[in-house]
Design a protein that fits this description.
This is Peptidase M48 domain-containing protein. The chain has 14 helices and ten strands. It is of the alpha+beta class and 335 residues long. The longest helix is centred in the first third of the chain and has 20 residues. Bound molecules: zinc ion.
């Protein structure tokens, strides 16, 4: 049967052909090349759409597929959990070691990237249940285009970047390099240069693999283990809550800011945006966003971004007005 498929990385939907197998749903482009294989046990229905990880599929006859999905069962017959556990087992051993703070940074550099990605994706999958991805296609395309520009040609790029529907004012980088921008932050930003600064800072964390060490410090080895084996239903709230309190070290923050300055300069984006972001965040009470958590001196950080500005340089706009409006509205407008 025919359908439309959005892989969640680039927010464009493709026309696809869908085949339902015994245990696996195969999604192929119209030229026959396979785009994704979804184990039926992992597919969730959301209205007219079907979800697996952060990808979305809509088809002409959703009832037909719905009937063939296994009944949801939380604890049994989930082969992916075993796969995730096996993939992550070496990482778990290292993670126990990670709990010893002086070795955290050293160990984080030696966890295999595939294990870190498996862990981050499990966490991401759980988080998306609480904070659904905002899927406005023009906004998604604008976000990806801005991210690519800020990242430049460096091979170490974010795994994916998305806006998720949470009222909190924050941005989070997960282990493995997924960057989540929370809708509450997007609502508070007035210019795309402010968002470019946030992206540049988070890309700094991705390149340094700060999130792995920070997540262990935040939620502990036991909680991470539960997330990796997929039985995290009871601790999702706790984990997501703890991630909001991610504590990067002062050095992590200083280094991420330094990377952000270099990236913005190379991308020809005015660093005044990030200075304005820090000034805005400073005024927010309650939940302290990640970028401020371990570094209360945000006015000094704003000043560093202002000092980097070159007088008389005509910076290129981070996004055009239509792209910015699409991005601001991609969760369905302000709530
Ligand atoms: Zn940070």
């Amino acid at each position: 049967m025919r359908g439309r498929f959005c892989d969640g990385r680039v927010a464009l939907a493709h026309e696809v052909r869908v085949e339902i197998g015994e245990r696996v749903l195969t999604i192929a482009a119209l030229d026959g090349s396979a785009l994704a294989h979804w184990p039926l046990a992992e597919i969730e229905r959301d209205g007219a759409a079907f979800l697996c990880a952060d990808a979305t599929l809509t088809i002409d006859d959703p009832e037909d597929l719905s009937r063939r999905l296994p009944r949801p069962s939380r604890r049994t017959d989930k082969p992916w959990r075993l796969v995730a556990l096996l993939a992550a087992a070496p990482a778990l051993i290292v993670l126990i070691w990670l709990a010893i703070p002086p070795l955290a940074r050293f160990a984080a550099r030696h966890v295999p990237m595939e294990a870190e990605i498996a862990m981050g994706d499990s966490l991401h999958f759980q988080i998306l249940k609480a904070w659904p991805a905002c899927t406005g296609p023009e906004g998604g395309a604008a976000l990806w285009s801005l991210t690519s520009r800020v990242n430049g040609s460096d091979q170490t790029r974010p795994r994916r970047v998305m806006v998720v529907d949470s009222p909190m004012v924050n941005a989070i980088t997960l282990p493995g390099g997924t960057i989540l921008i929370l809708r509450g932050l997007v609502d508070k930003l007035d210019t795309p240069e402010q968002l470019a600064g946030v992206l540049a800072h988070e890309i700094g964390h991705v390149r340094r693999r700060d999130a792995l060490a920070a997540s262990v410090r935040a939620i502990g080895v036991g909680a991470l283990a539960a997330i990796v084996v997929g039985d995290a239903s009871g601790i999702v709230g706790t984990a997501a809550g703890s991630l909001l309190g991610f504590t990067y070290s002062r050095d992590d923050e200083t280094e991420a800011d330094a990377q952000a300055l270099a990236l913005l300069n190379r991308a020809d984006i005015d660093p005044i945006g990030m200075a304005r972001t820090f000034e805005m965040l400073e005024k927010i009470e309650g939940n302290v966003p990640e970028f401020l958590s371990s570094h209360p001196d945000s006015s000094a950080r704003a000043a560093a971004f202002l000092a980097d500005r070159q007088a008389g340089r005509a910076y290129r706009p981070a996004l055009g007005p239509a792209q910015w409006q699409a991005l601001k509205g991609m969760c369905g407008g302000q709530k």
